Amino acid sequence: MGKEKFNDAWTFHKGDLSIERATSDQVSWRPVNVPHDWSVEGPFSSEWASGTGFLPGGIGWYRKDFNLKDYDKNKRYAVYFDGIYKNSEVWINGHYLGKRPNGFIPIQYDLTPFLQADNNLIIVKANHTDYADSRYYTGSGLYRNVYLITQEEHHFSKWGVFFQTPEVSKERATAKVSVELENHGKEISKKTVQIYLKDNDGNSVATSKQDISLRPGKENYLEFDLEINDPKLWSPGSPYLYDLEVNLVEGSTEVDAWNEKVGFRDFHFDADRGFFLNGENMLLKGVCFHHDAGALGAAVPKEVWEKRMETLKELGVNAIRMAHYPHQDFIYELADEMGFLVQEEAFDEWEYGKNKWIEGWNVGTPGNEGYHEAFSEWGVKDVQDMVRRTRNRPSIIMWSIGNEIDYPNDPYSHPVLDEGRNPQIYGKGFNKENPPASHLAKLANELANAVKMYDTTRPVTAALAGVTMSNHTLYPSVLDIVGYNYQEYRYEEDHKEFPERVIYGSENGDALDAWLAVVNNDFISSQFLWTAFDFLGEAREWPVRSSGAGIIDLAGQPKPDFYFRKSLWNNQPMVYIGVANSERDVNRRSNIEEAWIGEEGQTKWITAYTNTEEVELFLNGESLGRKEAVYQNDKMIAWEVPFSPGELLVKGYDKNDSIVSEYKLVTPGTATDLQIQTDKRSSSEGIEEIIHLDILLTDKEGNRITDDDREVSIEVEGPAKLLGLESGDLSSHESYQAKERNTYKGQLRAYIETTGEAKEVNIKISSPGIPEKEISF
Predict the structure, then answer these.
(1) How far apart are the two ends of the chain, measured CA to CA in Å?
(2) Which family does it belong to (predicted)?
């Protein structure tokens, strides 16, 4: 199978058209690079919705004129979209191919009957006029990769190879490979399917082959059983992957080929003892995240996500929840390669729309537009396509069919909401006008069965927000394992009441108590922190246009609470200090700053985040006291210190009284310099690559300035371009299309994309009153 990116040479038109006008040359089109997200182009405006980041929706059209290299009328051609947001419709050479309401699901169309030997025209329409259709930022348009698939008339079906591992141990493992094939000819064709499983050195560790008579217009199906001894098992600490090669051959001629990375691992959840991977009990130190990345919107290159996930590894994360929809295809490949356990999730709503905040989170009158309008027709197919796309990924350990579908009175309700101890989210109690919660079980059962038609190797789950209500329905019993969102207080009593139920934390706050609820209960296996990264949308009132829930900012830079979490989840010795203006802020871990600045004598509170045994604080070389490194729910490690400029230093000691980690803050002088850091100094010829350029506003000694932000301009010369500038400021309304942006707390990240041309790239970075910097690649 030939599969190549089909991202170049698209043009775009914003606004409504007829297909006749879109086909003509009477409309103005501008060239764009796909992936392309037109919403992030803005502008930010209070006329739009806080839920989707105060960014516009609308209707967008895309065109691509193309000639097929080496076109062969006997071959099969298809176009594969990893996602189009949303309500997409596609035409090829004037022929209508189809529609798909869901913007997060991959779509493939057969082009073969309509292609021409010379010029071809593909047109895509995306309709996102219901801009307030989500509780988070979605993006708009061709915001994910597009691929052209070329095959012979006999070939593997879409997602037609399924790799399963029925038995896995350190001594022996078996694999079952299911293969679906298609025959688009008119006659039965005899072929052979060959399977090769290879290690990282290219050695075959298992092989098999079978002959098959491919029947035209019929389902053609084979199963293979493989066995290997002494397998190298996949885990977060050692994410070993094998190469699976499946070849369709006729005689000595290869007709089609399927290549994929696969892994062997054995896992299960236990109602009393939690999660086991490869026979070992382990805790899932998880985070949730959305698909956007600040300035880049939802059109995020693979390298950007790779760098973000490297930051998660540094933190100690071993699990990811894909909130609340299928994400970009390459993220799952990265999860396999880097070692993250994954919860894949399908929906944030089913048959009824949730509240979508327009004026600000929990402010004003919400809207209710959204995916639910397509659910009855498309829900089963959407969840099945989610499963089929990624079911070969060893990283995926559960399928979630929904997030907070049972959010009380939004829209489902139940009489129990008038009774007993209920969290704040239950609002005014039972509302008999709302749909009954009992209906949740029926829909969940339909979706769970739809999943199990294509994969029985992983449990089906959902993230429950209203456990009190759902416990009075059959909804939890339909699930294999039950996720609790922010319901730690229910863990113990529900475990006693439902001893067979596997309970895990599917979405959790960052309080110390929430983590202790995992550590102190053997039957709870996980915490999925909300959230890893700040994200566009789910905003408070204007002018705020993004969520600050992350422990990493929009630019991918760690925030102070990142280091608190690192002290809990990472065993490598570390210590960090932050500064606050009150003891209350220290104990609540709020308003913590990464700067030692202030007025002489002003009272400051210093806190330390560490996994060492003891910590000692020094100001200008003088010890301010040594403390045991112990956190309490209402009292963090803290020193009260009158401000005096200079060096604030903390040392961490191990149990042998050796210094194992240090961290310091220095009072900066005047902003006089820009420090430039980059993750690479060269790029590969012929390959488009992303360069991360981190810009730090500093004094002459290199100390970061956090309270005197400046505008920074970027000029790129050579075969590269600026994709975007991100500061991490949640309230900035600067255009993401501009070549200049203010730093925020002294930081700015630039994303540069190279074209792969073998010429030097020069980047000039300037700011008024500061010497210009230039960096070359």
Answers:
(1) 35
(2) Belongs to the glycosyl hydrolase 2 family.
Cα–Cα nearest to 239, from 336, 96, 334, 139: 336
Which parts of 251-352 are beta strand (E)?
A: 253-262, 267-270, 274-277, 280-282, 284-289, 319-322, 341-345
Does the domain spanning 571-666 belong to CATH 2.60.40.10? yes
pLDDT one-digit tens code per residue, 114-129: 999 899 999 999 999 9
Whether 571-666 and 283-547 are alike in CATH topology: the answer is no
CA dist., res. 160 & res. 151, Å (int): 14
pLDDT at 427: 63
Inter-residue contact 749 to 693 (CB < 8 Å): yes
Among 506, 517, 430, 442, CA closest to 478: 442
- Candidates 86, 147, 94, 84; CA nearest to 116 is 94
Please tell us whether the domain made up of 283-547 is placed in CATH 3.40.30.10.
no
541-578: pLDDT as tens digits: 999 999 999 999 999 999 999 999 999 999 999 999 99
Collect all residues with Cβ–Cβ distance below 8 Å to 667 and sequence separation of at least 6: 596, 597, 645, 646, 647, 703
Closest CA to 285 of 257, 254, 319: 319
User: What pTM does this model have?
Assistant: 0.97
User: Which structure tokens are listed for 534?
Assistant: 């700040």
- Phi/psi-derived region of residue 557, left when phi > 0, alpha when psi is between -120 and 50, beta in every other case: beta
d(CA 507, CA 485): 5
Q: Is 50 left (phi over 0), alpha (psi -120 to 50) or beta?
A: alpha
Amino acid (1-letter code) at residue 153: E
H helix or E strand, kind and range, residue 640: strand 638-642
pLDDT (0 to 100) of residue 419: 83
Q: Is 686 left (phi over 0), alpha (psi -120 to 50) or beta?
A: left
| Crossing angle (nearest 10°) for helices 329-338 and 302-315 | 40
Residue 602 per-residue DSSP state: -
- How would DSSP label each residue in 547-566? E---SB-TTSPBPHHHHHHH
HSE (side-chain half, CA atoms, 13 Å) at 748:
29
d(CA 302, CA 279): 33
Residue 334 CB-half CA count within 13 A: 19
50 vs 362: CA distance, rounded Å: 10
**Topology of the domain comprising 154-262:** Immunoglobulin-like (2.60.40)
Angstrom distance (rounded) from CA 64 to CA 93: 11
Domain ranges in the chain are 2-151, 154-262, 283-547, 571-666, 673-776
Backbone φ and ψ for 597, nearest 5 degrees, come out as: -140, 155
Superfamily of segment(s) 2-151: Galactose-binding domain-like (2.60.120.260)
Q: What is the pLDDT of residue 769?
A: 93
Contact 709, 744 (CB under 8 A): yes
For 738, half-sphere exposure in the C-beta direction (CA atoms, 13 angstrom radius) is: 14
Q: Which residues contact 200 (CB under 8 A, 6 or more apart)?
A: 240, 241, 242, 243
CATH of domain 673-776: 2.60.40.10
The distance of Cα 84 from the centroid of its chain, to the nearest Å, equals: 16
CA-to-CA distance for 748 and 764, rounded, in angstroms? 14
What is the rounded CA–CA span in Å between residue 384 and residue 324? 16
